[in-house]
Amino acid sequence: MLFVVGPLVISRRPFNIEEWDREVNGSWAKQDLLDRAPDRQFTGAGDEPLNLSGTLQPFNRNAIAGLSGLALAESLCRTGQPVFVTRGDGRVFGFYGIESVKQSHTAIGPQTGGIGQAIKHELKLVPVGQPGATVGADMLSTLISLFG
Fold first, then answer.
1. What is the structure's pLDDT at 127?
2. Which of 22-31, 56-65, 67-76, 78-87 shows the lowest mean pLDDT across its residues?
3. Which residues touch 33 (CB under 8 Å, ≥6 apart)?
4. Fold annotation for 3-147
5. What are the helix (H) ranges across 23-84?
6. pLDDT tens sequence across 75-87
7. So where are the chain's domains?
8. How far apart are CA 52 and CA 55, in angstroms?
């Protein structure tokens, strides 16, 4: 397992990522001052966007289910459901919202039914505040279903 994004388990197969990046920053408010250069005041932590990207090969017999993972990511994006994100080594990133899911199909042929033999995908996630109790209950039931 590489990442868990809510109910979406990202592994080497069938739904994988090959690259991820995260940006951590602080928020600084500009303060104009008389007869001096402007100053800045730290106002707190800024956004910490997280991007996950990879390539699916849906016609590879070992990765046939990758399309369902992509569909799940799109569904989570459309509904705006906050998801709890953890990395495979146990590092907790917290609650994020899936801001966008991008896919790019290549090697489309008559035998593929319009689906690319290689699908590059990117999930853009943005941090969200702590959701209500119902989301926590949904997350708990998802975790229980993963482990038995």
1. 92
2. 56-65
3. 39
4. Elongation Factor Tu (Ef-tu); domain 3 (2.40.30)
5. 66-79
6. 999 999 899 999 9
7. 3-147
8. 11
- Closest by CA to 84, choosing from 49, 131, 44, is 131
**Which bin fits 114, alpha (ψ -120 to 50), beta or left (φ > 0)?**
left
Which residue from 133, 136, 107, 103 is spatially nearest to 120, judged by alpha carbons?
A: 103
Structure tokens, 145: 């279903």
Q: What is the DSSP string of 67-131?
A: HHHHHHHHHHHHHT--EEEEETTS-EEEEEEEEEEEEEEES--GGGTT--SEEEEEEEEEE----
Q: How far apart are the first and last CA of the chain?
A: 16
